[in-house]
Amino acid sequence: MRDAEVVIVGAGAAGLSLAYRLCAPAAGNREPRVLLVDAPHGPLTPRERTWCYWEAPGGAFDSVLTASWERLRVHGPDGAATEGRPAPLRYKMLRSRDFEAFVGARLAGRSHVVRAGATVESVRDTADGAEVRGRDEAGRPVVFRARWAFDSRPGTGLPPARTTLQQHFRGWFVRTGQPAFDPATADLMDFRTPQPAHGLSFGYVLPLSERTALVEYTEFSRRVLHTAAYERALRRYTAQVLRLDGFRVTGVEQGVIPMTDGRFPRRAGRSVFRIGTAGGATRASTGYTFAAVQRQSAHLAAALLAGRPPLPPPAHTARHRAMDAVLLRALDRGRVDGAEFFTGLFRTVPMERLLRFLDGRSRLWEDFTIGLHTPVLPMLRTAAELPLLPRTGHGAVNRPVARPRRPEESRP
Q1: d(CA 36, CA 51)
Q2: Region (Disordered) spans which residues (predicted)?
Q3: pLDDT tens, 16-29?
Q4: Do 215 and 171 form a contact (C-beta atoms < 8 A)?
Q5: How many structural domains does the chain have?
Q6: 357 and 323 in contact (C-beta within 8 Å)?
Q7: Staple partner for 186: which of 69, 111, 209, 403, CB 3.0–4.6 Å?
Q8: Of the candidates 17, 295, 286, which has an alpha carbon nearest to the alpha carbon of residue 152?
Q9: CATH number for 110
Q10: CA angle 176, 178, 179 (to 5 degrees)
Q11: Does residue 251 fall inside a structural domain?
């Protein structure tokens, strides 16, 4: 006997987003019974995370945003700033606890959604659906059965790939004694940081008011740093670049996001699917995930509510995945200067078009024009060699030394 038509494993961004879409008012009269299984409160409970994305005003979660910005800025290595308004898009910041409370309130009012706490050990096919096995908070075995299972748990390793880098970062929530930030402008990339021998680094500043902001130091490279190295980089960036004086750190977050051209399987059985980062929702060239999760969730909910097989769609088109693979390889081999590459794109491509490209929603002719603003010969050389390279390894995710606070989505 089935417990539900749909079982969702994990109540992070992907799991909650799918449950939310299945409870949307536009869903109609059909309400499939949904079982949302999440780990009991304890060591497996993720710490609060920050998710950023861009979309026009009026989004589903606008009422619980921490902040949003109408102007974005990028600083090149020479200090020159490129600033623009990507209208109609706004850059939005959402904290995980606010998202969880918002969706939790929606789910609490729907009788066809049941939440259960369990540490999941396996998700597998059965003769007529899917089965989830685990242990409840007391350690007792539990079994849940459903027609369809959607597993959002992060994998223990990465798929075979030609190139795998890590996007790793540490951020301080700071409060200054005097006004120091422009609340209307977010700094997406500030390359006035010492560039590492391999990959690239940049600062990232999201002002929450004139005196508060999230300030991060980020690297794209093969290996993560020790916490002390991030702290040194942040002290240098806040003192020598931002010239902040008399501030205190009110919170910290740290994380790592794999940037890989490996192919994440979206299906793990006849009735078992992977969603979110585990299903390839993370954009390989940027690390952004939240917007792709929303598109994926909307597609799955529409299929389930219509009674169709709910195979998750590719989060990003084959064309954009191929372009990501070229960029990752070129960065990894040192054929392009990462700081100059991204600075050049923001200086020469209309910001709204570039953001749509980074979100995987640009059209073919737009991708072609954007490609003309990159180092053409190194990129063509890289594109020519990629089909000849084997996909190797099942690398483990290289976690930072300190406990990560944002294992799934994040901004870049």
Answers
A1: 21
A2: 391-412
A3: 999 999 986 554 56
A4: yes
A5: 1
A6: no
A7: 69
A8: 17
A9: 3.50.50.60
A10: 95
A11: no
Write down the pLDDT at residue 412: 41
pLDDT tens profile 211-269 = 999 999 999 999 999 999 999 999 999 999 999 989 999 999 999 999 999 999 999 99
Instruction: Report the greatest alpha carbon distance in the chain.
Output: 65
Domain membership of residue 357 (yes or no) is no
Number of H helices, E strands in the chain: 9, 17
Identify the residue whose tokens are 């409970």: 45
384 falls within a domain: no
Examine residue 59 and state whether it is found in any structural domain, yes or no: no
Question: Mind listing the pLDDT tens digit for each residue in 75-117?
Answer: 999 999 999 999 999 999 999 999 999 999 999 988 899 999 9
Supply the range of the domain harboring residue 136.
Answer: 4-48+96-157+264-306
Question: Which phi and psi (to 5°) does residue 323 adopt?
Answer: -65, -40
3-state helix, strand, coil in the chain (%, to 5): 30, 30, 40
3-state secondary structure of 122: strand
Answer whether 313's CB lies under 8 Å from 303's CB: no
Burial (CB count within 10 angstroms: exposed 0-12, middle 13-18, buried 19+), residue 383: middle
Q: Percent of the chain having pLDDT more than 90?
A: 85
Q: In whole angstroms, what is the distance from residue 268 CA to residue 287 CA?
A: 23
SS3 395: coil
The rounded distance, in Å, linking the Cα atoms of 60 and 103 is 11
The pLDDT tens digits of the residues spanning 186-210 come to 999 999 999 999 999 999 999 999 9
Non-local (6+) Cβ contacts of 361 within 8 A are none
Regarding predicted confidence, which is higher, 41 or 125?
125
| CA atoms within 13 A of residue 29's CA, in its CB half-sphere | 0
Stated as kind and residue range, the H or E segment containing 329 is helix 318-332
